[in-house]
Each structure stands twice: as structure tokens, then as C-alpha cells.
Specification:
276 residues, mainly beta, seven-stranded antiparallel β-sheet, 6 helices
Length: 276
């Protein structure tokens, strides 16, 4: 039986640690890290008034869940106040090596932000063998009388080992579909959006429970082998998103329908020295 390094190391942790491998992710056919995380026992998802996704572990406050990418906190110290769970939606699963979930207080190792637990997403490092990966998915989804094109695209190329260096570049585009509430509100509120206007034709609107739209990212990773026991890993990732969400709280005609947009270019750069 083949041993998994991450799972073996997890046995040394004092807290309950779950390792989700790339094979586990492939079995679930998940498109984003968010789809994986919220199917785990003890991890729950909430949405605040602004539509931002938060993560709670074992009932702890979302601000006490520390979310890491390759060991680095996402969005710095502001993550716990601005919906760090959205970062999990931005990450596609094609470029993820494994995910570590620590349930329970881990503040002694990770600081006060990890009172509830830790989610650490480890991305794939540059491979020693040259290769290319292409994933393409497309379909048409009918929802509320309208038809939406649903497309996912991922491309990755690895240079293979060249002397002491190996590198990889990748890019992706994902479309996140809307999730609507069951409750409908009356009134004709023309917003100019094809999605919302399709609902307005019936004289009713439904709140979108989360942001939906396009997420694009591009990045690269590289590894430099100092010697047999020490390496330097470099990772850079840039994301561009165009997301929107519509909210209406009552059937009153005088209350306007609120339109929230989330446009941004989150990016992170990390350099890590590994030694044995």
C-alpha cells in the first residue's frame, strides 16, 4: 500500500486533521475548493448581509477560521472581516495538490486567528516531467426561463526538470451559476440584467443567495533545487473576477432591488524555502 506524505504528517498533529488528496478531489468532481470544503463534517458555510461567504469550523465564529494558501494567509489580516470564504470560491481544483483541514484550536501554532481551526490549500508544484494538461467543459443551463452558457477551462504546462530548475504556468476561466432563494417578491424592477429581467417578466423576483459570474486566473510556479535536501519554491497567482448579486427584502414596490457587484484582481506571491 502506498503511503501519502501529507496524511502521515497529519498523524503527528494534536488536533483532528483531515487531508483531502488530489484523488479525493477528482472523485468528487468539484470545480472549486469551496465545493470540497463545505462537504466535510464539522465545516459549515454562512453568508453575511453583503453576500460574502464565511467559514465556520465546529461552530466557532467565522473570524476564528484561518484560511491559508500554500501556508500563507489569504488577504492578510483583513480576511476575517471581509469574507475570506470567497477565496475558496476563487480557487479551482485543477491546480490543487491537497487540502489540509485542522478542526479545533490551533492558535499555539498558527496564531489567534486559528482558534476555530485552519484550512490550508496546497497548490501543485512544478513537475519534474514535462507535460501539458487541458480541461474544457461546456453546457447550457436553463434556469428561470432563461438559458445560461456554463463554461470551464483550464490549461497548465510544465517545463520539466531543466538543470536545477523546473517551472509551470497555468490559466483558467470558470463561470459560477446563481443560486436563488425559494421566496419570491412581487414588483417590476427592471435592472437591465438578462438574468434578473428574465425573472421580472413574471412580475416576481428572487434573491440571489450568492455572487455569480466569471472568475479568471493566471499564475506560475517554479522550484529551484539548492541541493538534495533544500529547495526554494516560488508561486505567483493573479485572479480577475466579475461577479454580481441581487437582493430584495420585501414585496413592497417602493423598495428597490439592490444590486451588488464584486470586481477585483486578488493576487498573491509566495517564496518558501524547504529544507530537510
Amino acid at each position: 500500500m502506498e503511503a501519502d506524505k501529507a496524511k502521515e504528517e497529519a498523524k503527528l498533529e494534536s488536533q483532528q486533521t483531515t487531508i483531502i488528496t488530489a484523488a479525493d478531489i477528482a472523485k468528487k468532481q468539484a470545480k472549486s475548493v469551496e465545493d470540497i470544503i463545505f462537504s466535510e463534517t464539522g465545516v459549515s458555510r454562512t453568508v453575511d448581509a453583503m453576500g460574502r461567504v464565511t467559514v465556520s469550523i465546529r461552530g466557532a465564529e467565522p473570524r476564528h477560521t484561518l484560511i491559508l494558501i500554500d501556508g500563507q494567509p489569504v488577504m492578510g489580516d483583513f480576511a476575517k472581516y471581509s469574507g475570506a470564504g470567497d477565496e475558496l470560491q476563487r480557487l479551482g481544483t485543477e491546480n490543487v495538490d491537497h487540502i489540509e483541514i485542522i478542526q479545533g484550536a490551533a492558535s499555539a501554532k498558527y496564531g489567534s486567528d486559528a482558534i476555530g481551526g485552519v484550512i490550508n490549500v496546497i497548490t501543485k508544484k512544478a513537475a519534474k516531467t514535462a507535460g501539458m494538461q487541458v480541461n474544457v467543459e461546456g453546457r447550457r443551463v436553463k434556469q428561470d426561463g432563461d438559458i445560461f452558457p456554463y463554461q470551464n477551462f483550464f490549461l497548465r504546462a510544465d517545463s520539466g526538470q531543466i538543470g536545477k530548475v523546473r517551472a509551470a504556468v497555468y490559466g483558467s476561466k470558470r463561470k459560477t451559476m446563481p443560486i436563488y432563494s425559494l421566496e419570491r417578491f412581487g414588483g417590476d424592477h427592471n435592472t437591465g440584467s438578462a438574468i434578473t429581467d428574465a425573472v421580472n417578466e413574471t412580475g416576481n423576483v428572487r434573491n440571489s443567495l450568492r455572487y455569480y459570474g466569471d472568475i479568471k486566473n493566471i499564475g506560475m510556479s517554479a522550484t529551484y533545487d539548492i541541493d538534495d535536501r533544500n529547495t526554494i519554491d516560488f508561486n505567483m497567482d493573479k485572479t480577475k473576477e466579475d461577479m454580481e448579486r441581487y437582493v430584495k427584502h420585501s414585496s413592497s414596490v417602493s423598495e428597490p432591488q439592490q444590486h451588488f457587484k464584486r470586481e477585483g484582481r486578488p493576487q498573491y506571491v509566495s517564496v518558501v524555502l524547504y529544507g530537510q
